[in-house]
Amino acid sequence: MKAALKTAGGRFEVTEVERPIIPSRDFVLARVRVAGICGTDLRHWQKAEPELECHIVGHELAGEVVEVGEAVSRFKPGDRVVIETVMGDDVCEYCKIQRYNICEHLYDVRTKYVSRAYGEFVCGPESKFYHLPDHVSFEEAALIDTFSVCLHAHHHAGVELNQKIVVIGAGPIGLGQLQLARLAGADVLIADPVQSSLDLARELGAAETVDNGSDDLVARVMAFTGGRGADVVFECVGGEHMPETLPLATRCVRRGGAVVVVGGFDKGEIAIPLEWQRIQMSEIRILMSASFAYHDIYPEQGTVLDLLASGKLNASKLITHRFDLDHINDAFETAAAKEHTGAVFVAITIS
């Protein structure tokens, strides 16, 4: 099959590799139709990472079933599907209570099977596949992973009616966080330095938008909340900006409020000075959110699929650019230069 492999310099080489085979009776083989680029992918872009060299990556995908194991009962060849790529070892104590998103072997397992979106075929257990309704496009479905990350953070925060919510970062995660908070009946201020992203946030229901590259975000938040501060602040930027955005988030939240960290950290120890006395004295909670799994008895990806299929979440407005697999490097360059390209979610047609 054709696949994009990471190179030593962190770009991609499109080449022919072996197609995966079904290793177990309960596995499904699918043809990937569309994959996406998210913030995690961009943090690895053009970085020399020997552990990823010659590997297939990517974890936002949808496609069609081509083959099923003999124990598979819910799927058949030709079925349209969206594939969950958060997959633990299924034997540890966290997996046993459906918290596989914090499984110690999460990345070892997921990258061996389902987290290989930038290839023509992917294989995984039946439990990681969801039927995709005909009226939901493959491109829209590729955003379900992103929205599931948002839903997990939303559950952590416990967003309630009439709360004042601040979202820092108007990429796909931030715009998903905005939509979920609006669905819960909250008012949302969202901040980002890219004007095209803020314009889209307005279309999706943001009560206020702030260019935090030139405006005083804390002052704007205080005006938005009557001087109290936000009930919840979602940090949706992450990466190299975290030493700036996390302290900023703690200055925007009210006493007794919560900061939910959704943006990903880079590897290694990172020094981030915070006003710990003020945070403690104000009982401000800093909550870490990682990927997604289950909420009570409900798989969060399944919940997002229902929300998207019923029209309660809008994915189509986030899709700004499209490329085929042969031009995956162009796709990443476009996604990384959003200040100039206006990119939000970049979709890659695989096959």
TrEMBL record:
Q: Which UniProt keywords apply?
A: Metal-binding, Oxidoreductase, Zinc
Domain (Enoyl reductase (ER)): residue spans on this chain: 9-346
Q: Name one Pfam family in it.
A: ADH_N
Taxonomically, the superkingdom here is Bacteria
The cross-references to InterPro entries, in alphabetical order and at most eight, read: ADH-like_C (IPR013149), ADH-like_N (IPR013154), ADH_Zn_CS (IPR002328), ER (IPR020843), GroES-like_sf (IPR011032), NAD(P)-bd_dom_sf (IPR036291), Zn_alcohol_dh (IPR050129)
Cofactors that this protein relies on: Zn(2+)
Q: Which organism is it from?
A: Sphingomonas qilianensis
Tell me what this protein is called.
Zinc-binding dehydrogenase
Q: Which family does it belong to?
A: Belongs to the zinc-containing alcohol dehydrogenase family.
Q: Which Gene3D superfamilies match?
A: Medium-chain alcohol dehydrogenases, catalytic domain, NAD(P)-binding Rossmann-like Domain
Keyword NADP attached: no
Q: Does the keyword Magnesium apply?
A: no
